[in-house]
Amino acid sequence: MLAALIEILLLGALAGTLGVWVLVRRLAFFTHATAAATFPGLIAASRWGIAPLGGAFAAAGAFSTLQRAITRRPGTDAGAVTGTLLVGALAVGAAIVPGEHHVDEGEGQAALFGALGTIGWGQVAVTAAALMLVGVTEARFRRAWTAAGFDPGSDDGGHADTALLVVAALTVVALADAVGALLAGVVLVAPAASARLLADDLPRIRRLAAAIAVAEGATAVVVADAAGVDAAAVFAVIAGVVHAAVAAIASVRRPAVAA
């Protein structure tokens, strides 16, 4: 339980940093897709007897490289490319599972939804390393990311966006054991999206995103422990409900302010 709570604090810090930048740069779909695309890598790693993290990194790397290579062409719809590659990755994972006798139901479920409530200190260390990587990258590219949020053409050469894509891909892979291939993007971005509806300036959005993520995660661990279900799935459900509620409240308030 203690490891899970420390992991949630780290996830909150990631939501307040990387999650906010992903939202500002409109990369939420890419982040979710990259996380989900690790599924075949996780299953293949189990089949070949290698570290799950290695399989996840390989799958995410292949996905991100293909996505970046294709979307560099002028006039390419990045969303369509990302969606097509995601469908392909999930299809590969689905094709591997039926013929793989070494992947039981529990392993497949953990690959998809993680095991936040029962993680060990090794995963906490991996998440802490991911947070440090985000911090170092942000220190280098913060100005460029901020400018590109207002003027997409300001990123000369695309180096800042490439750095953000790489660090987002590495982070969601690092979170695979904790929250699973399908939920890593949700856990990172949903709190930031809720915070964005409650505040307008970046520092407040960051603080709110971190606080929302920690509150949602802690609630998820308590509820999951009492109900005997996985905490990561509960975390994602709570994040979705909170965002829907915040969006509904914001939609009522803003027309009133405009009037």
Q: Overview of this structure, please?
A:
The protein is 81% helix and 0% strand. The chain is mainly α and 259 residues long. The protein has a single domain (2-258), classed as ABC transporter involved in vitamin B12 uptake, BtuC (Orthogonal Bundle), CATH 1.10.3470. Helix 1 packs across helix 10 (184-198), helix 1 (2-24) packs antiparallel against helix 11 and helix 10 runs parallel beside helix 12. The longest helix has 30 residues, at 121-150.
Write the SSE topology.
Blueprint: H1 2-24, H2 28-36, H3 39-48, H4 52-71, H5 78-96, H6 105-113, H7 121-150, H8 159-174, H9 176-179, H10 184-198, H11 202-227, H12 231-258
Helix pairs in contact: 1-7, 1-10, 1-11, 2-5, 2-8, 2-10, 3-4, 3-5, 4-5, 4-8, 7-8, 10-11, 10-12, 11-12
Number of distinct helices: 12
In the CATH classification, which architecture applies? Answer: Orthogonal Bundle
Here the CATH topology equals ABC transporter involved in vitamin B12 uptake, BtuC
Q: What is the molecular shape?
A: globular
Intertermini distance: 49 Å
H/E series: HHHHHHHHHHHH
On the 0-100 scale, what is the average pLDDT?
84
Question: What assembly state would you assign to the polypeptide chains in this entry?
Answer: single chain
Share of helical residues: over 70%
Supply the helix-strand structural class.
mainly alpha
What key phrases describe this protein's structure?
259 residues, mainly alpha, 12 helices, ABC transporter involved in vitamin B12 uptake, BtuC
How do you describe this structure in short?
With 259 residues, the protein is an all-alpha fold.
